[in-house]
Amino acid sequence: MSVTVRVPAKVNVQLAVGGARPDGFHDLANVFLAVGLYDEVTVEPADELTLTCTGPGSDQVPLDRTNLAARAAIALAERHGLGDPKVRIHIAKDIPVAGGMAGGSADAAGALVACDALWGTGASRAELLDICAELGSDVPFSLVGGAALGTGRGEKLQPLDVGGEFWWVFAAADGGLSTPAVYREFDRLSPEAPEPVAAPALLDALLTGDVERLAATVTNDLQPAALSLFPSLKETLDAGTAAGAVAALVSGSGPTTAFLAADEAAARGVADGLAASGTCRSVRVACSPAPGATVLSGN
Ligand SMILES: C[C@@](CO)(OP(=O)(O)O)[C@H](O)COP(=O)(O)OP(=O)(O)OC[C@H]1O[C@@H](n2ccc(N)nc2=O)[C@H](O)[C@@H]1O
Ligand SMILES: Nc1ncnc2c1ncn2[C@@H]1O[C@H](COP(=O)(O)OP(=O)(O)O)[C@@H](O)[C@H]1O
């Protein structure tokens, strides 16, 4: 018996960041959009907790109990009095690692849903979301997918309706950026950050599926901090714009860069232009919105 769950990456179409809170986190207005790049998490019974990972960047993924997927299995087993989880977790990675696309969060949400199905724990959606929030600020969104406004540290979700498809190109950078380091740089650059608020025009662009309007309203408050720590990203952003992207931004805390295109054909053109520019490691095209954690098979 094994269970496989597919989980999407995300892009933040608005990431409004407030000042640092006493607990070290930042209040956000975080407009998440799930995109069609997926990791797959497979779980099966084993003598003890073991983890394997394949795919691009898998050498950077920890295979011990610090892995977010392992932590998800441990948290679910603990809540249901199952002791240490006897499970083998395999992650087939396709989401860039440490790229600001919530790959680790996706694996946590995937492992949670997979273990729940494997063990028949029958956890409610509310309980799963609660465990997700304990694991990380982005993990609840990986579970639900689609589009959502995340407030608090990003874990309190309000689903958003999306009225059409949006095509994206993602450029992976050589190297990674640490999320805490980017938030620290944000604090240094923006000591007087105002209270974060979702932009009504951006929410309306999502609702109406209006790509030009979305292009005009996307923002990422972490972008100056990411560029300060990783200045060459500016060249990638410029290359994507020159190749026809209608918007170019750093994805979350970076260093992956995200390019919105007018349609699928335009996205392919942007991807070709970026690949030829020599300003990034690899390029992917993806469509949004994408569904959240989905059980693919249990056998
Ligand atoms: C920036 C964002 C945008 O969606 O994602 P990435 O681009 O990294 O994927 C998120 O806020 C990242 O969320 P996530 O990666 O789950 O962060 P967590 O594990 O909860 O926290 C890691 C660290 O990031 C910082 N952090 C995170 C969330 C938040 N609202 N304020 C923070 O200051 C804190 O330093 C925290 O210790
Ligand atoms: N399942 C996992 N997949 C990827 N990274 C993980 C995982 N579990 C823990 N990590 C750690 O989390 C860090 C952040 O990775 P990731 O979630 O891919 O990026 P980001 O937070 O920028 O979206 C990695 O450098 C890695 O050490």
TrEMBL record:
Residues 203-277 form the GHMP kinase C-terminal domain. Catalyzes the phosphorylation of the position 2 hydroxy group of 4-diphosphocytidyl-2C-methyl-D-erythritol. PANTHER family: 4-DIPHOSPHOCYTIDYL-2-C-METHYL-D-ERYTHRITOL KINASE, CHLOROPLASTIC (PTHR43527:SF2). This is 4-diphosphocytidyl-2-C-methyl-D-erythritol kinase. It is an enzyme of class 2 (transferase). GO terms for molecular function: 4-(cytidine 5'-diphospho)-2-C-methyl-D-erythritol kinase activity; ATP binding. Gene3D superfamilies: 3.30.230.10, GHMP kinase, C-terminal domain. SUPFAM superfamilies: GHMP Kinase, C-terminal domain, Ribosomal protein S5 domain 2-like. NCBIfam families: ispE, PRK03188.1. One of its GO terms (biological process) is terpenoid biosynthetic process. InterPro entries: GHMP_kinase_C_dom, GHMP_kinase_C_sf, GHMP_kinase_N_dom, IspE, Ribosomal_Su5_D2-typ_SF, Ribsml_uS5_D2-typ_fold_subgr. The active site is at K10, D138. ATP binds at P96, V97, A98, G99, G100, M101, A102, G103, G104, S105, A106. It comes from Streptomyces tabacisoli. Its EC number is 2.7.1.148. Residues 67-146 form the GHMP kinase N-terminal domain. Pathway: Isoprenoid biosynthesis; isopentenyl diphosphate biosynthesis via DXP pathway; isopentenyl diphosphate from 1-deoxy-D-xylulose 5-phosphate: step 3/6. Belongs to the GHMP kinase family. IspE subfamily. Pfam families: GHMP_kinases_C, GHMP_kinases_N. It catalyses: 4-CDP-2-C-methyl-D-erythritol + ATP = 4-CDP-2-C-methyl-D-erythritol 2-phosphate + ADP + H(+). The gene is ispE.
